[in-house]
Amino acid sequence: MAASMTVGTGAPPAPGDLSGEGSQGLLDPSPEPKQLPELIRIKRDGGRLSEADIRGFVAAVVNGSAQGAQIGAMLMAIRLQGMDLEETSVLTQALAQSGQQLEWPEAWHQQLVDKHSTGGVGDKVSLVLAPALAACGCKVPMISGRGLGHTGGTLDKLESIPGFNVTQSPEQMQALLEQAGCCIVGQSEQLVPADGILYAARDVTATVDSLPLITASILSKKLVEGLSALVIDVKFGGAAVFPNQEQARELARTLVDVGASLGLRVAAALTAMDKPLGRCVGNALEVEEALLCMDGAGPPDLRDLVTTLGGALLWLSGHAGTQAQGAARVAAALDDGSALGRFERMLAAQGVDPGLARALCSGSPAERRQLLPRAQEQEELLAPADGTVELVRALPLALVLHELGAGRSRAGEPLRLGWAPNCWSTWVRGCAVGHPGSACTGTAPRSAARSAAPCRRHSYSRTARPSRPLALRRARSAAAAIKLLCRETLWVLGSPGRERRDRGRGGGPSRRTRDLRWAPPSAQAPRARQRPCPSAHGQLRGTPAPWLRACGAHDT
Fold first, then answer.
1. Which residue, of 175, 181, 215, 474, has the fewest CB within 10 Å?
2. Segment 288-311, tens digit of pLDDT
3. Whether 477 is catalytic
4. 115 a catalytic residue
5. Number of domains observed in the structure of the chain
C-alpha cells in the first residue's frame, strides 16, 4: 500500500518537556502583543507571524476571547498564505502546550508509539492497528479526531459502539494503557484544547487542506503523548485532502521536518486514496470490518496497510530489526487473535458493557451486525446483467454519505451513525471485482441528489455509455439517493422492474426491494437472469456483477 516512506529522526521529548532539541532558533518573541484583527491582517497580506503572535492567537482561542469569525478568518488567511517551517513549529508547540501534558512511567519510554492518517474514505486502520501494536508489546495512547470534510473520523466510528467513551482524563489514559495497552480518545479541555477548537472550525470553513494547519494539528496531539515513534499515513488521490501526489509528498516532508525539529521520530507513508479502503464506508459498518480484520480475515488492502504501518512503527521504536520483521509480527497478532483480545479489553475499559465487548469480539459477522446500530429501511438494488465492476470512486460515495448525515456541515453536529454504504468489493490489480454487499441507509432531512451527481463522471461498467447525459432526479430520501447513485453508476437506461414490499420476520425492520432492470439504449437485449448472491470472499474476476444493497441501520 505504501508508495514511499519518509523517515525523520530526533530524540523524543522528555515527559512534560515540549521544547524539543530543535526549538532553538525559532521565531523571536515580539515585544508587544497584537490584537487579533492585526494578526489576521498580517497573515492575510502574506506576512510572517512572530512566536508571540502565534501564541497570542492560540491563547485567545482557548480562553474564548477569539470570536468564531476571527478564528475562521485566521484559518483562511493561513490556508491562503501558508506558513514557513518555523511558524508551523511554533504553532505546533503552542497547540500542544494549550493543555495538560501527558506523563508516563519511565519504563514505557521506548514503548510509546502512535499512528495518524490525514483522512480517507473507509479508513479504519486505527481501529485495527492500535490493538495490534498493543499485542506486540507497545503502548498506544492515540489521541484521535472526528470526521473532517468528506473523510470519516475514528472517534465517530468508535462511538457507534454503544457505551464507548472517547473522553478520558490523562490519569484514565494511563490506567487504560496499563489494562489494555492502547486507548483511542479525543481532545478534551485538558488535552490539546486549542486544536480541538480549530479542528472543528476547519471542518466548516473550507480550510481542511491547509498544509501548516494539518501539520500542527497532527503533531500537537502526538507531541503531548511523549512518543518514541510516530508513523503518519499521508493520503493522496481523488478522495484525499490532497489529490496530487506531489502535494502529499510536500506534506510528508513537512511533517517529518517539523517533527524532527521538535525531537520526535517520525515516518510518513504515501498511500493512494482514489477508491475506498476496504469494502465498507460509514461508522458502524467500518467497525464491523475492523473486527473482521482483527479476526484474521477482512479485505487484503486494509490488512496490507495495517501491517505496513505497524511494521514501520515496530522498526522505528526498536521492537523489530527491520520493517519486514515488524510487519510479520503485526500480521501474527491479527491471525492469532491477540489483537482482537486487546480490542475487547479497550472496549470494556472505555465504557462498553463487558458482555457487549465480548459478543462483538467473539461473535460471527451476522451476530456483530445485530449489536451495532442498524437503520430501519433497507433497499436492495440488483445488477441488470453479468459483468465486472472495474472501479468504485471513493469521493462520490463520501459526498452522498456526508449529505445524508454521516458527516458534519456544522461544528458539533450529531451524526447518523447507522448510515453507511458497503459495496463489498475487493481490489485485484487496481480493478474492483464485484461482491454482494450492503449499504446502510436511513431517511434524511434533505436531498442528496446533488451529491450523487459526480458519480456520472467517476463510474464505470461494461455497458456502453449513453449518448446523452442521464437525467438527475430529485432524491427524497436516503434510499432514493442510493437508488439514484446505483443507477448512474451502472451507466444504463431503462425502466425499473416491479416493486415488492416485504415485512421483516420476527418484528425486524421492514424491507423494501425493487428489482432494477435496464437494457442499454442501443440494443434491447433480453432481460438478464438475476444471479443468486454469491459468497463475499474468494470471487474471481469475470463473475456476475454484484448487488449493491442498501441495508442499514437504526438512525441515532
1. 474
2. 999 999 999 989 999 999 999 999
3. no
4. yes
5. 2
